[in-house]
Design a protein that fits this description.
The protein is of the alpha/beta class and 212 residues long. The chain is built from 4 helices and 12 strands. Helices cover 23% and strands 31% of the residues. β10, α3 and β11 form a beta-alpha-beta unit.
């Protein structure tokens, strides 16, 4: 009987530091094994299974992550160094910027590349089936207040629509447009000149967990 070692490290996606006391659950068709990471963020399982394995990593105030392995993945060697798992921290009602989620100019249409970036959020929603989120879009101060508000409302909705098309229930998501009302950087420099870097930071898409 082959004995496989499943091991890896769990760390914080933001700080890159190891996470101790994270719960790691390994499931196959016959058994469920559970362990916690040590101070170095390490976990180890010994399994005799030649069935598919599901690995779940959980820690309070972090999004859970689920990984699936086929027997072919395991059979390549007697030790499976599972991909090191990074967990993303979150707090209720604290916005997280979705980097590089962009839209066609002056439109609410997501670019193809942005859909790939939204797939990261799709994975979070799949791996954390109880959380509910607000997805919001923000603009810079170019254009009228009313125009920017309308554009941001439509952009936030297009993100939610994309996630619904991938199978996330609409009941778990709300979309909000804030227009130019919540800048995170100055749209203009103190001397009154345009601030392109600030505007770029203000044109952003965010999500926050409203319920877990």
């Amino acid at each position: 009987m082959n004995i496989f070692t499943v091991k890896g490290i769990v760390y914080d996606c933001d700080t890159k530091l190891p996470l101790s006391d994270a719960t790691i659950i390994l499931v196959d068709s016959l058994q469920t094994l559970k362990t916690t990471t040590n101070q170095a963020g390490e976990y180890t399982f010994k399994v005799s299974s030649n069935r598919k394995l599901k690995l779940t990593a959980e820690k309070d105030k972090y999004f859970s992550k689920i990984l699936n392995f086929s027997y072919d993945d395991l059979a390549k060697k007697d030790t499976l160094f599972s991909p090191d798992i990074c967990l993303t921290p979150y707090e209720i009602d604290k916005p997280i910027v979705l980097k590089d989620v962009l839209y066609e100019f002056d439109k609410a249409t997501l670019t193809e590349d942005s859909k790939g970036k939204l797939d990261h959020l799709f994975s979070i929603m799949e791996d954390n089936p109880k959380i509910e989120i607000e997805l919001s879009a923000h603009t810079d101060s170019k254009g009228s207040d009313a125009y920017n508000m309308d554009l941001s409302v439509r952009r936030a909705k297009s993100c939610v629509d994309y996630l619904v098309s991938k199978g996330i229930p609409i009941s778990r998501m709300t979309s909000r447009g804030y227009g130019e009302t919540r800048p995170v950087a100055p749209n203009e420099l103190p001397n009154g000149k345009d601030n392109p870097e600030g505007r770029a930071l203000n044109r952003r898409t965010e999500f926050k967990v409203t319920k877990k």
